[in-house]
């Protein structure tokens, strides 16, 4: 019976500044580092025997995993990084202040961009200050210029099935440190959450979502490791 822990990265510098971040590589704040360590403390105290870890290629998720593994005394775990676990790409909203964007476009429009399942923000223009086409970590990758949650799921799911599923099916306990929307995409898939309900599921920082799976990788139990700070839980399928 494999166990899976989903860890959302701690507060980033752009979270603190209230800016749309997406694929931009913001680092953790001091608070974010503390949240990462808290996740590690909780993971160390649970009954899983984690033997593999996965994360994105973004600094805030990678460092969250490093700090958590340090607290777990598991820095020796094999760690696999992949861009398919990156945060949702916020397109032309990248770098913008969220409050200023709402004032310009209206709260309703910004809410649609942020929380609808299949409506992406405006695309990022080529040559923008936030254009990542020259970033070496994305060499040879068709970088999106915007993404909805639906599009995020479509690029996360192949990686889940090809890289992570075989590890879990071998009976290995796995920890994934990633982002609000890439983790939300995994939750949607695992728990068969309807399109209209998935945006109501949000994994908090510093509090891993702990899932026990059967041999077919169907969830049989789910909880937050810090039950007192948990948010909405997905229903078991």
Lay out the secondary structure.
Elements: E1 3-8, H1 13-16, H2 30-45, E2 50-55, H3 59-72, E3 79-81, H4 98-105, H5 107-115, H6 149-169, E4 173-178, H7 180-191, E5 209-213, E6 219-224
Parallel strand pairs: 1-4, 2-3, 2-4
Antiparallel strand pairs: 1-5, 5-6
What does this protein structure show overall?
It is a single chain. With 237 residues, the protein is α/β, with parallel strands linked by helices. The protein contains seven helices and six strands. α2 crosses α3 (59-72) and α4 crosses α5.
Structural class: alpha/beta
For the secondary structure, the number of strands is 6
Strand order across the largest sheet: 3-2-4-1-5-6
Supply the number of helical segments: 7
Q: Regarding quaternary structure, how should these chains be classified?
A: single chain
Please report the distance between the alpha carbons of the first and last residues: 17 Å
Largest sheet entry: 6 strands, mixed
Classify the beta-strand content into a percent band: 5-15%
- The helix/strand series, from N terminus to C terminus, equals EHHEHEHHHEHEE
Unreliable residue stretches: none
Averaged pLDDT: 95
Using only CA atoms, what is the Rg?
17 Å
**What sort of overall outline do the alpha carbons produce when their principal axes are compared?**
globular
- The helix content, as a percent range, equals 25-40%
């Amino acid at each position: 019976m494999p166990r899976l822990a989903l860890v959302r990265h701690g507060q980033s510098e752009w979270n603190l500044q209230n800016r749309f971040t997406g694929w931009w590589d913001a680092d953790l704040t001091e608070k974010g580092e503390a949240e990462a360590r808290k996740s590690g403390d909780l993971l160390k105290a649970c009954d899983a025997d984690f033997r593999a870890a996965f994360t994105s290629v973004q600094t805030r998720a990678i460092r969250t995993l490093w700090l958590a593994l340090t607290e777990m005394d598991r820095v020796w775990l094999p760690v696999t990084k992949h861009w398919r676990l990156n945060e949702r790409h916020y397109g032309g909203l990248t770098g913008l202040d969220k409050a200023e964007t709402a004032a310009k476009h209206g709260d309703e429009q910004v809410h649609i961009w942020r929380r609808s399942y299949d409506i992406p923000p405006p695309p990022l223009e080529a040559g923008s200050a936030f254009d990542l086409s020259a970033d070496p970590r994305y060499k040879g990758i068709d970088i999106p210029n915007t993404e909805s949650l639906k599009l995020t799921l479509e690029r996360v799911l192949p990686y889940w099935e090809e890289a992570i599923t075989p590890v879990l099916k071998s009976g290995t306990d796995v920890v994934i440190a990633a982002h609000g929307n890439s983790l939300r995409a995994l939750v949607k898939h695992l728990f068969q959450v309807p399109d209209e309900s998935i945006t109501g599921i949000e994994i908090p920082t510093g509090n891993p979502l702990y899932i026990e799976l059967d041999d077919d990788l169907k969830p049989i139990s789910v909880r937050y490791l810090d039950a007192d700070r948990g948010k909405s839980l997905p229903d078991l399928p």
